[in-house]
Specification:
The chain is an alpha/beta fold. The protein has two domains: 161 residues, Aspartate Aminotransferase, domain 1 (Alpha-Beta Complex); 240 residues, Type I PLP-dependent aspartate aminotransferase-like (Major domain) (Aspartate Aminotransferase, domain 2, 3-Layer(aba) Sandwich). Bound molecules: pyridoxal-5'-phosphate. The site of pyridoxal-5'-phosphate (PLP) has 13 residues, from α3.
Length: 454
């Protein structure tokens, strides 16, 4: 099955076993118990799920006050300085008991279109409700779209969001997945030049990329983002731009310090023709509005594509909950959304600075200065052995009740078609999603752990 075998590093009785030699990509280094039936395929273990499973064995539970989840993929969800009060209730109406429209209620589609027009398309042709499809979460919006792809070549960047691995793999009978590895020298940022070269050389008809990027925090913006849109139009390559972290933007002040960026970043501002530019934008309430549990995601793009994606939903999921959509209307009211996004950049910029300072002091280095998301992608090669290996660092940090995510999980490998060592064995994703006090506690513990190893 391509699973790793060999001596386990610890807990030989556990279901998840790590081989020290030979080293392989993360997804092939996890051994599971034999399947009950061969009817099920080997579903890849997403990094964050693995991290939580391992931490749970040591007593972790969500919200446990003594654990610091610096592996977490969600922003803090409670009341936050400067943010509007959290939405606590939603009315249930008689029509909520019935199925709703597959692509979302007309009211929410209109509110999402209006949100984009207000933020990014002043003085430009507007998006309408027909340009929006709502799904129960961002992953479902992406999955529906990938399920709608024709038999084509699809590009993706490395490293990128772990969930793309299985989404791409599921459709490999029809589509071919083509990786573009970003370079450390370029801060792991996909450049327009690399994008164009890949589209032409590999004959790509679509490309999926998170921007801002999970895990690296790299962000493509301004003229370069405009270039991506132009290349997509010129080459007729449908760009699937995952903008789930578009409000978490930080920028450098004149004195060299870092603070909140002044505005969210979206390719919506660079689209010429909302009906013909082949760009699909993905976002939702999960990160930017801090409601991951509501499962509200959407895709925005040309109405013909939106219509096709909506049809996929009829077999896949049956459309989103009207109840969650009614709650989403309250979160997207202009004054609520704007106050939230301003607060998010302000509060998270302070947490970003604390994390960057603490990790730098420990000896973690970065390919570029973290400019977005709530993740820091750091290299451990300056840490004392054995903490300079991300899997060992991860295990040791768990002993201190701190969770992190080893970089190899982001070396996504649809269909396990690539073998060999991952270049991210010394890279780690650290999350500053948790509230400041919990974050500070986690960083103090990591500092002490590294200091003890020197
Ligand atoms: C890059 C990226 N896109 C999309 C999502 C989708 O989130 P959800 O399905 O929870 O709405 C996530 C969540 O971790 C993400 O990191």
């Amino acid at each position: 099955m391509g699973w790793a075998s060999g001596p386990s590093s610890q807990n030989p009785g556990d279901r998840v076993i790590f081989a020290r030699q030979p080293r392989r990509l993360a997804s092939t280094r996890i051994e599971r118990s034999p399947p009950v039936s061969h009817a099920l395929r080997d579903v890849p273990y997403m990094g964050v799920i693995f991290v939580v499973a391992e931490a749970s064995k040591l007593g972790f539970e969500n919200g446990h006050p003594d654990w610091c989840n610096l592996g977490q993929g969600q922003p803090e969800v409670g009341e936050m300085a400067g943010a509007p009060e959290r939405i606590h209730s939603v009315e249930l109406l008689p029509e909520d008991h019935a199925y709703g429209p597959l692509g979302g209620t007309p009211e929410l589609c209109a509110a999402v279109a209006q949100h984009y027009n207000r933020l990014y398309r002043q003085g430009k042709s507007p998006y309408g409700p027909e340009n929006v499809s709502i799904a129960q979460g961002g992953r479902l919006a992406l999955s529906r779209t990938m399920a709608a792809l024709a038999p084509i070549n699809v590009g993706y960047q490395l490293p990128d969001y772990t969930a793309y691995e299985d989404m791409l793999e599921l459709h490999m009978a029809r589509t071919s997945a083509y990786p573009v590895r970003t370079s450390e020298a370029e801060g792991f940022r996909l450049t327009a030049e690399r994008y164009e070269r890949a589209v032409i050389d590999a004959g790509l008809s679509s490309f999926v990329v998170s921007n801002p990027c999970n895990p690296t925090g790299a962000v493509i913006s301004g003229d370069e983002l405009q270039r991506f849109v132009s290349i997509s139009r010129e080459q007729n390559c449908t760009l699937l731009l995952d903008e789930f972290y578009s409000h978490f933007i930080y920028s450098k002040n004149a004195d060299g310090s870092w603070g909140p960026g002044d505005r969210p970043v979206s390719a919506a501002a660079s689209i010429d023709d909302v009906e013909n530019d082949p760009v699909l934008l993905f976002d939702g309430l999960t990160k930017n509005h801090r409601y991951p549990g509501w499962r509200m995601g959407w895709v925005v793009g040309p109405s013909k594509m939106i219509d096709t994606i909506g049809r996929v939903a009829s077999a896949m999921d049956g459309g989103p909950s009207r109840i969650a959509q009614r709650a989403a209307l309250a979160a997207l009211k202009a004054e609520v959304a704007d106050q939230e996004t301003d607060a998010v950049r302000e509060v998270f910029a302070a947490k970003r600075n604390l994390m960057v300072e603490s990790l730098s002091a420990m000896g973690v280095r970065f390919a570029s200065e973290p400019a977005s998301t709530f993740y820091v992608w750091g290299c451990l090669d300056g840490l004392p052995e054995p903490l300079n290996d991300s899997m060992t660092f991860f295990r040791r940090a768990l002993e201190h009740k701190v969770m992190t995510v080893p970089g190899t999980f982001f070396d996504i490998n649809p269909g396990k078609r690539r073998s060999g060592r991952s270049p991210y064995e010394q890279w780690m994703r650290f999350s500053f999603g948790p509230p400041m006090d919990n974050l500070a506690m986690g960083l103090e513990r990591l500092t002490a752990m590294v200091a003890a190893a020197r």
